[in-house]
Amino acid sequence: MIALTDAFALFGWALALCAAASCLQRFWLPNSFWANSLLLAFFIALLVPVFGAGLPLAAFFRGISGDLSITLLALNVWSLCHRLFDVAAINKREFKALMVTISAAALILYPTALGLGNWDAYRLGWGSWWLLAALLALCGVSAWLGLRVLPALIALALLSWSFGLMESTNLWDYLLDPWLSAYALGFVFIKCWQSAFKRFVIRSPH
Length: 206
What we know:
Structural class: mainly alpha
Order of helices and strands: HHHHHHHHH
Helix content: over 70%
């Protein structure tokens, strides 16, 4: 019988791939019953064991890239609900704040985890009160600024971590993953580039 952590990871990968397919699908297929049926069939196909291999296609993606974070899975669910059920998209201000926060965390976490400097931020993920206090402070600041998505995602990651839904026991793996970090960094870079271009090129005197 498959372990709960394995089932959750495979479900997460199938969900993420469906969210990606949904984003691509809107360019050539309108949101309709048949388009949504194809998306559902794709989701099921990702979880059905491949003939001869004994593993579903989602397991191959997991084997190559590892587990996805709770944060990314929650964003994928929100994206699919927006696409399929017309749920409101994340507010632009909320999304920008989320991407900036994730980018800052990634720039601290991954370089130190890879050996840059004598301090490893990844170690804090094993139940350090410093990390928990920092997350609590971040939630407080976000609430004071009127942001709701970031505290909700942090709370969801903490809840999942407390129940051990993922194979990892490190809190960082519930909060971040390389795919989410790369997307956030790319998003922030593009926004900064666009802002600089408008300021120094478009508005500059000719």
